[in-house]
Amino acid sequence: MSASIDRMNPPALPDAGKVGYSQISIVHPGPLAFVSGQVAWRADSAPVPTSLAGQTAIVVENLQGALDALQATTDDIVQMRIYITDLRDETQEIAMGGILRFLNGAQPSLTGIGVDALAGPDLQIEVEMVVQVAA
């Protein structure tokens, strides 16, 4: 689908575009899909990797699978929320590296949130998306 989303980084706010996201995303009329938080669980129930980088890679695969099911691209993502246990500069750098590669230049509005726990004791990252889809 051809995204009809305007991105803004107004001068009154820090320029989030420099680090790969937008402060504001304006969506023009059209349906939105709310993608549940994706974690490092696979459809085949394979074990969850112990590393944050390994978990991020699976999360990205799951996010891409959701986009494919919606017939959407990363340019259609309006907003992402990224939840990370043990949020520190080092873990944020690992997670955001994988997320930014996945986004491939798209700059949705994005929020990073440090949490104590996720849906399973071995999970370190969860990402949810709001995606504009074709009518």
From TrEMBL:
GO terms for molecular function: deaminase activity. InterPro entries: RutC-like_sf, YjgF/YER057c/UK114. GO terms for cellular component: cytosol. PANTHER family: 2-IMINOBUTANOATE/2-IMINOPROPANOATE DEAMINASE RIDA, PROTEIN HMF1-RELATED. It comes from the Bacteria. This is Enamine deaminase RidA (YjgF/YER057c/UK114 family). Belongs to the RutC family.
